[in-house]
């Protein structure tokens, strides 16, 4: 079912992919999936996000698929992800921008309270981190253990993303559930030479 849906929505589909018949088939497939187990209704949009397939994602969003759906929440809560989180992990600004335009929430969290901004920070994806942070009044989103995106960036040695988050108002003195600040994590991870970024 998922493969057929992605085939119908992919960039390689035939020229009639945007006609009324195609849209009817797509909507029917989505309705059929939604009528079954609701936890599986989000799978196609996640598959499109993993593939970086903008056309498929566009068609799914036009068919009112929830851009904030969480895949794996019931089956594998630890790795549960939103489409925006998958776009952030890919560093795909185009995909993330499309999701945001269609109502994706930057603060929507997956497993352990991790958000798209945490993943972008951890991966050193400065461009997408900038897009995501611009949507927030406060970039200090917290995971279940109290870590902010800046904690993630510092621990992973992502200097550029760290400076970006600080410029956006991230708290350099924020402490996680264990009392550790981003600077402490950077030192624990052996990151050197950029201590000035974490001065309180």
Automatic annotation (TrEMBL):
* A Pfam family per the record: Ank_2
| Annotated ANK repeat ranges | 79-111, 112-144, 145-177
Does the keyword Repeat feature in the UniProt annotation? Answer: yes
Question: What domain of life is recorded for the organism?
Answer: Eukaryota
SUPFAM superfamilies on file: Ankyrin repeat
Q: What InterPro entries does the database record attribute to this sequence?
A: Ankyrin_rpt, Ankyrin_rpt-contain_sf
The UniProt keyword set, sorted, is:
ANK repeat, Repeat
Q: Region Disordered: which residues?
A: 175-200
Q: Which PANTHER family match?
A: ANKYRIN REPEAT DOMAIN-CONTAINING PROTEIN 39-RELATED (PTHR24171)
Q: What is this protein called?
A: Ankyrin repeat protein
């Amino acid at each position: 079912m998922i493969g057929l849906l992605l085939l119908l929505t992919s960039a390689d589909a035939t020229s009639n992919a945007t006609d009324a018949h195609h849209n009817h088939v797509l909507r029917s497939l989505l309705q059929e999936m939604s009528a079954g187990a609701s936890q599986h209704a989000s799978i196609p949009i996640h598959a499109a996000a993993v593939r970086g397939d903008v056309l498929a994602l566009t068609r799914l969003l036009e068919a009112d698929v929830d851009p904030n759906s969480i895949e794996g929440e019931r089956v594998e809560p630890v790795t549960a992800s939103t489409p925006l989180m998958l776009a952030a992990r890919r560093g795909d600004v185009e995909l993330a921008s499309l999701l945001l335009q269609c109502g994706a929430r930057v603060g929507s969290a997956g497993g352990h309270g991790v958000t798209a901004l945490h993943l972008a920070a951890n991966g050193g994806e400065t461009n997408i981190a900038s897009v995501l942070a611009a949507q927030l009044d406060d970039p200090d989103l917290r995971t279940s253990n109290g870590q902010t995106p800046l904690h993630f960036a510092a621990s992973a040695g992502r200097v550029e993303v760290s400076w970006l988050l600080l410029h956006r108002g991230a708290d350099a003195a924020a402490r996680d559930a264990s009392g550790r600040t981003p600077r402490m994590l950077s030192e624990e991870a052996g990151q050197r030479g950029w201590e000035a970024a974490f001065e309180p």
